[in-house]
Structures are given as C-alpha cells and as structure tokens.
Write a structure and sequence with these properties.
The complex is a heterodimer. By secondary structure, chain A is an alpha/beta fold. In chain A, 28% of the residues lie in helices and 26% in strands. Chain A has two domains: 9-186, 3-Layer(aba) Sandwich (Rossmann fold); 209-286, no CATH class. Chain A has a seven-stranded mixed beta sheet with strand order 3-2-1-4-5-6-7. A four-stranded antiparallel beta sheet of chain A has the order 8-9-11-10, with helices on one face. In chain A, helix 5 (94-97) links the parallel strand 4 (81-87) and strand 5. The longest helix of chain A is centred in the middle third of the chain and has 25 residues, at 162-186. Chain B contains four helices and no strands. In chain B, helix 1 packs antiparallel against helix 3 (32-46). Chain B is globular. The chains are: A alpha/beta, B mainly alpha. Chain A binds chain B through residues 16-17, 45-47, 49, 52, 163-164, 166-167, 232-236, 253-254, 256, 266, 283, and chain B through 25-26, 31-33, 35-36, 39-40, 43-44, 47, 49-52, 55-57.
C-alpha cells in the first residue's frame, strides 16, 4: 500500500552517523512510499560508511565536493523532492530554497533558536550549559532560521567532550527523524516559527572559544571546559589549544581528568587541581 | 603491551576482541566515536602521539592492525 506522500524523490546530503541512520531508515520505507532515493557526499570524512550503505541498498551515490557543482546539480531537479540535509555544512542558495517543488529539512545540533551556526556542541560546553539538544527544521534562505519540525533535549554531563556530545546529538537526531518522518512526507507537520531576536549571535566556523588559548592563572575548571569544548578527537575542527609555560609558548597535545593518586610526573606535563579532589593532567609541547 | 591495548579496546567494544574480519568499521563493529576514545586512551597509556594521518579505517580494521600501529609508533 502506498503511504501518503507527494514526494517522488528523496535526496540526502551529509556525513557522519546521523546521515547513515537517516539513509538506512529512508531506504527501509522506500517500498511503502514509492519514492526514489539518492545520496550526495559533499564533505569527505575518513570513517564515512555512507558509500558502503548506498552500495548495500543499491542507492545511487554521488560525490560532489565542489560547492558550485553541487548547487548546479540541485538546481536542475524537476520532480517534487524532499532534500534532507542530515549533517551538512553546505548552504543552500535562495534560488533553490524558494522552488515550490523542493522542500529542504536540516538537522541542527542545538536547540534553535539558541546556538545557530557552526560547532554548536563546542559552544554549549564552553558556555557551561547544562542542557542542549537537536532541532530538525525547514530550510529557508537564512542560516538556521526556518520553522521547527521537532526538537529533542539531552543533558550535558560535567566531563562531556565535544565529540561525545556530538555522538549523543546524532543519536537524538536519528530518533527524532524517525518520529517525524510520516508527517514530513504527508506535509502535515505543525511547524512552529523560531521567533528569534534578529540580533542573535551566529557562530561562525572560524570562531574558537577563548581564541583557543588559556593562561595558567585561569581557573582549572575553566581550562578543562575549554579543552573539552574543542575536543573532536583527531578531526582537527579546531587548532590545538595554546598556552604559555614558563614564559614559552606551548601547544596542548592531550588532557585528562584523573584521580589525585594517579599522578605521575614527567616531561612537558602539567597537573592542575580540579574541584572534587581530581587533577587535570595536561600533556603539552613547546612550539 | 598487547594485553593493555586489548583491555582498552574491550572497554569500548568487546566485540572487537573476537572479530576476525578485516574491516571493523564497515562491519559495524566500531564507529568513529569509538576510535576517538580508543586513540585517546592509547595516547595516554603509552605516552605517544597518534597523528591524524594514522587515524584511518585501515589502521583500525581489526585488533591486530591497532596493535601494529601502536608498536610502530613506540619504535619511532
């Protein structure tokens, strides 16, 4: 039985865990709805499994890394299409967004209208927020401004790093997508306007918390928060955090919260006291 | 060394210890987030720096590949 939808085509754009989950879910519903699916990989990531998912499920896969080429490709779509921007940094041109036969939805990794723009998990950790969440919203010509389809919240634990929060948010996004899929397809979502302040801060990709530096006189808890906020493992989203040790510039290699009895002094190692009797162990090297 | 690497791996993904294939990532045994945790623990445990160029699916295809990577970095 065909489910209720006018969409003939679903095009998914993105990378990472949430994209894989969305891709598999949409694929699983293909027979019921009768749409065709296509996936575009715009940003290449070393552990991406989307190409493999596409091969397994026989989903047409394209790799278009050039922004202009991607805009041109999307601009020639003529069928009624749902474009899913699952975890994606490509900004859709207004000429595409305004086409009546194209609906674009986007996953944002914060509770809009708070923390629009890039690297939201970083900023919520750095600002010491206790809660954050995800938003699926319709895409308009402005960045992260469209009306809200669904939101889900989660807590930010005291030791949470940016990559851990990102993973949690991706899981929430996949869950929220599955919950709202039928309504999106039926075009019956009761979307709500964001109602944001036009002067709200938009976080840009080049912005780094605390300019990516700290001083030894800063509170250890603040240093720990900064380090956690820019920690995406080896993804190098931000440059290494810098500081000054004994008058010399140093770059932080890694850090860890450890119990006081695990302290082992060594070269280019710092230990700072944290609340609760723990230590912040910081490995650095001079630059 | 091997024992400690396997201990770290098992903290995040016990299945990796019994996996006999050659692509843990594609086979859904580990994901990129597990890799970040494992890399972080390996760096701390062995006081080594695992450069981003080594953090690729090939070096995390199975436990033997991870052990070989750490061995190589310790010898450098």
């Amino acid at each position: 039985m065909d489910m209720n939808t006018a969409f003939q085509r679903i095009l998914i754009l993105g990378y990472g865990k949430v994209t894989g989950e969305v891709l598999q879910y949409v694929c699983g519903r293909r027979e019921e709805y009768g749409y065709r699916i296509e996936f575009i990989e715009h940003e290449i990531h070393p552990f991406s499994v989307t190409e493999q998912i596409c091969a397994t499920h026989k989903i047409p896969y394209r790799r278009i890394t050039d922004k202009r080429e991607l805009a041109a490709y999307l601009g020639q779509i003529e069928e009624k299409t749902l474009l899913i921007s699952a975890s994606n940094n490509f900004l859709f041109p207004a000429s595409l967004v305004e086409k009546p036969h194209i609906t674009i939805i986007n996953f944002h990794n914060a509770l809009l209208p708070a923390y629009p723009g890039r690297n939201a998990p970083t900023w919520v950790i750095y600002m010491g927020e206790k809660r954050t969440g995800i938003t699926w919203h319709y895409v308009t010509a402005g960045v992260d401004e469209g009306s809200i389809i669904i939101q889900k919240e989660c807590g930010i634990t005291p030791d949470m790093k940016a990559y851990e929060l990102t993973e949690r948010l991706m899981d929430l996004a996949a869950e929220a997508f599955r919950e709202s899929f039928a309504q999106i397809m039926a075009e019956s979502v009761k979307a709500r306007e964001q109602g944001f302040d036009p002067g709200r801060r938009m976080y840009r990709s080049f912005e780094v918390p605390s300019d990516g530096t700290f001083a030894m006189t800063d509170r250890p808890e603040e240093i720990y928060r900064l380090l956690r906020s820019v920690d995406y493992g080896k993804n190098n989203i931000f440059p290494p955090v810098k500081t000054t040790v004994d008058g010399q510039a140093a770059e932080i290699l890694r850090y860890r919260k450890i119990p006081i009895d695990k302290r082992k002094d060594g070269e280019e190692l710092l230990y700072l006291p944290l609340d609760g009797g723990n230590l912040l162990k910081i490995k650095y090297h001079f630059i | 060394m091997q024992e400690r690497i396997l201990e770290i791996l098992s903290e995040y993904c016990e299945e990796a210890l019994t996996y006999n294939g050659d692509s843990m990532m594609e086979d859904g045994i580990i994901d990129s987030f597990t890799v970040i945790n494992v890399v972080s623990d390996l760096e701390d445990e062995f006081d080594i720096e695992i450069d981003a160029k080594y953090v690729i699916a090939e070096n995390f295809r199975n436990k033997e590949a991870i052990i070989a990577l750490v061995q190589k970095l310790l010898e450098e």
